[in-house]
Amino acid sequence: MDLAGNTAHGMVPAHKPQGLARWLYATNHKDIGSLYLWFAFCMFLVGGVLALCIRAELFSPGLQFFQPELFNQLTTLHGLIMVFGAIMPAFTGLANWMLPLMIGAPDMAFARMNNWSFWLLPPAMTLLLLSFIVPGGAAAAGWTLYAPLSVQLGMGMDLTIFAIHILGISSIMGAINIVVTIINLRAPGMRMMNMPMFAWASLITAYLIIAVMPVLAGAVTMVLTDRHFGSHFFNAAGGGDPILYQHVFWFFGHPEVYIMALPAFGIVSQVIPTFARKPLFGYSSMVYATSSIGVLSFMVWAHHMFVTGMPATAQLFFMYATMLIAVPTGVKVFNWIATMWQGSMSFETPMLFAIGFILLFTIGGLSGVTLSVAAVDVQLHGSYYVVAHFHYVLVAGALFSLFSAVYYWFPKMTGRMYVERLGQLHFWWSLLWFNVTFFPMHFLGLAGMPRRIPDYALQFTDFNRLASIGAFMFGLGQLIFLVNILYSLRHGKTAPQQPWEGANTLEWQIPTPAPYHSFNPPPQLETAENGVVLSMREGGQG
Ligand code: HEM
Ligand SMILES: [Cu+2]
Predict the structure, then answer these.
(1) Site to substitute for ligand 1 among 71, 73, 75, 380, most atoms within 8 A of C-beta
(2) What is the distance between the alpha carbons of residues 63 and 308, in angstroms, rounded to a whole number?
(3) pTM across the whole model
(4) How confident is the model at residue 14 (pLDDT cuts 50, 70, 90)?
(5) Which CATH architecture fits 22-537?
(6) Over the range 460-496, which residues count as b (16 or more CB within 10 Å of their CB) and which as e?
(7) Per-residue confidence at 306, pLDDT binned at 50, 70, 90?
(8) Where do the domains of the chain lie?
């Protein structure tokens, strides 16, 4: 069975481009996936350094290192870089690497467009970082770029707007590629309702991206025309309304948080069954839950705006709609736990990160439900409670799931095993210091400490010190990951085709490391739910 090699079928060029050209002109989904993942990791380090600057300043009350203007630039760029430079590209990179392998496609549908989706990212991020050195500095309006502040800032804001335009184009192209690949390029026998949950999650996420990135582009373009071309969308003096900006931004912004959460759900839904050695519990309910989260995510945006003077009926609507999302999310958490129930579990690093994800994401979900209560949000809005909440869903959610995925698929990608002991250390270290960093922020918020502030009242000192120590230790721990990856790439043990006993999806049916070209022509499959492969023959009708 030559499902991988396939060079006999003259259609696929056997040669593998070398050197710089391989990366610059990359059209191979695995190469592009690697580019995305490395890029995202670099941005994670850059965003992380900015976070550590923030935490260094907040180690003590008073101003130590940064003037307030610069401090605000640091929080803004930290947020923008983590969201658009680290988390989103990392998920796109994984989708690029794994989707074709999981559904039996020879590559992504639009290989050349794929090249562009990636190569737009470095210039966009360069613009964003360059904004630190232009007159007036980087954007300092928070990652939400609220008007009227964003209308007034210096030219750093223009660079930010341009960067967001480019990032938006990149994400939309990447998303179109994912949708078309999944709809059109599944190998025969890979039915939609048998697809791996990671494919479902990527598909729904891609629809969200296509729907809302243009909305963000619209919001920042209105800011741009207000700044330079005499419009007054958000300027009250000219008849505009700053609240309009918030509506448009959050119509993008809330689905955006699911863009960073749904792929995580998909990853965990692959990892948990593998290490519990049981099929995913409630597969179809997982598909419907993910879809309904996708739909509901468009109907809750004004829960970010409870204090803007909405009518009580609107507050009630957005409050109940938000709470409704807890239902499908609860279904998912229930299914993951039911999958583990009576499974014969083992706790390799990917499984640890997946379980850590479930635990901590649930904590973030619960603080989210408390924030959805309008009367509570009036108190907690703009406080450190919110910072605690969204880091539980973003760091322990998105980031932990990404670590889980990288450890899980590392053998398939590279042909080598990572060092298990270092992986375990990375997990426990991250788990501990993550909580030391972010749990005290709940208390700070409840006690009234506002976010995006370089200085604070004396009574907040202790918890801030704890959070700062935690953050530096957490940051240090990520070097364990880097060392593990760099070491294992060269010196890791050779990985077998099937490093995980319980893994039974399509990507584990081909050689390790995954050959440069695979599934051309596509195999004829017989599948079960969640992408489980029952049988595979060569030469299905693509
Ligand atoms: C892992 C270590 C991290 C640490 C120590 C950290 C720390 C911080 C701190 C101290 C703030 C400023 C809070 C404020 O003053 O309002 C902040 C804001 C933020 N962080 Fe993180 N963060 C980390 C990772 C991440 C990740 C992975 C994301 C992923 C998306 C993220 C997203 C954000 C966002 C969106 C903001 C809001 C920025 C704004 O106020 O405009 N952070 N973070
Ligand atoms: Cu929201």
Answers:
(1) 75
(2) 31
(3) 0.94
(4) low
(5) Up-down Bundle (1.20)
(6) beebbebbbebbbbbbebbebbeebbeebeeebeebe
(7) very high
(8) 22-537
